Input
Amino acid sequence: MSTVLATLAGICALGAAGLLPVLVTVGLRWYAVPLAPLAGAVAASLAATASLTFGGPLLDWFIGIAVLAAGAVCGLLVVRPDLGLRAEAPRRRGRGRGRAVDRVAGVVGFLVVVLACIWSLRGLRTPTVGFDARSLWVMRPGWFLHSHAQLLVDLRARNLVLTQSAYPPLLSASVAVAWRITGIHTARLGVTMVAVLDACALAAAALAVVQAGRTVAARVSRAWLPLAAGIAVAALLVVVAAGITEPFLTNGYADPLWSLAAVGAVAFGLQLRSDPSTRAAAVILVLVAGMTKNEGFVTAVALVVLVAARSIGIAGLRGARRRLVTPLVLAGCELAALAWWPVLMKAIHARGATSTFSASQDLANRTDAVAHGFSPYLHVLVLAVPLAVLGGIALRGVRRRVELGNDLWAWLALATGLVAVASALVTGNGAIGPWLLSTAHRITEYPAVEGWWIVGLWAVVAAAGLAGPTAPDGVAAADPTGAPVAVDDPTSDGPAVDDPAVDGLVGAPR
Amino acid sequence: MTVVSALVAGIALVALGGQAVRGARTVDVQLAPRTVHDAAVDDAFYACIDTQAHSLVRPDQPVTLGGTNLADVVTMIKGFGSWLTVADPASTAQVTLTLHDGPGGPGTCLGTTVVATSRGPGGRTVVRVGTGAQVPGQGPPPAPPL
Output
């Protein structure tokens, strides 16, 4: 079997495991397509953790968890058939040509993003396997196929020296599934699997921008403007993100996956209109980010808190019980899933998980070095900050009316990820110069890409501003011919968030 | 508002377009002949020491990775760490694997060979050299990006 076919088989296996849970929770959306393999990767990660916790082969756990997840969502549909509405056709935006245009935009947006992603993976033609990929990410899958006793030895034996082997398991577990079902145990297959998962996360994040254009289009008179802007911006963002994350996008490193998944989680959870479908997409992407690498774990925990805070909103803080319970329970489940692996690493005294932390005393110099080391990779902020300020002042009303999230949420998410990574460097004990030299490019991928997503969303908002006055609620004109059409069909896109306090960020609705 | 919208959209799209061109060029570096050559040499080196290790130990045989050079241990983990059965404690290992770095020549991987040391009958030390693959030239392989 060739590497291409083996990769296809591996991704199909992950996709099959994630398909039903994604279809039920996210619904029949174009962005559900890349989310299915990512949800399967989460299942593989949980399978690896369960295999280490309880024993038993990885593949048995993977199949078991996939079946359990499928059974759970089917059971949920039986108990709560109203939730199944999300699995129906996407939101009908109006009638006649308006609906058709929206559908065409969805198809075109999906195809454009997929083609851009495929083009961005052309670096795979060079069979590069990165240093960390060969020493950890696509080496460790073999360990997950060992017996339980040997896996414990692999993770604990001090003479194996690599302390990074306690890193979260999602990538290695996904590759292990592909190795197991294809019988091909090569680093090359590992690299191609990782690259396709990267592309899935990138496509999901880009499709969030297409979705933003479609959401906006339903609320303006000249719908084609935000639709076209959403598609064009999404395509450009894919190419931009590929440039930022190369060569690690196609050499088996974990940094692009957690970074792109976190960017997607911010897009769905904090930037798009909040509804059950986007929240479900955000959950999957948060889990991918947090189960991929330690930096992703810290960022994912912050994102869980931010998404829950947005869902709770001002109304929740004022005591609306129903607004408190669901987000808190969901956040608790996410945090439990994310924490399982690191807690397990501590419990088994894994190499690299038990070292005593002692903060550096040279904080001022290290902070200065980190600022200088990061700055060449974060030039996007020079553009994004003034653009966001300008947009926040002049286009805030447009952004609110078209139901996109307050821009401050995305900035909070960017800042927490950046501060988390910078703090580790500032307070760590490693020689700061070589550390920065070897990692600054990779660990700034998340804030750099997030900065561009913020710029992209403002472009869509600006297109909405150009598209004419916002139509009255419920009678927006999505039809490019100008014929008024209905938009707020509550049965078609999951329950819309009607409470203006749902996105309550310091008194700024949505 | 229209002017500001046009300004924001224009700036954002121009910046995105410019950065996209830059990004496409970055990706194209991956296809440069030098990058392709380095990747091929790197792959050949690790495939070579993997084959040599397979010629010395079975996957189920407890081994330890020896030597005083940390870089050699990391190289062995990169080359065949995924399938080895690592012994813990190391004293229970049947075989100790090390790398021997020397001049490039027949039977070596860019000058490196995998060496297995074990206890033979009567407590005698048995040293075997890995076989089955070679890569001409002198190592180490080109350093990939960190």
Chain A touches chain B through 70 residues (CB under 8 Å). Chain A has one domain: 3-89+99-348+365-466. Residues 182 and 286 of chain A are 29 Å apart (CA to CA).
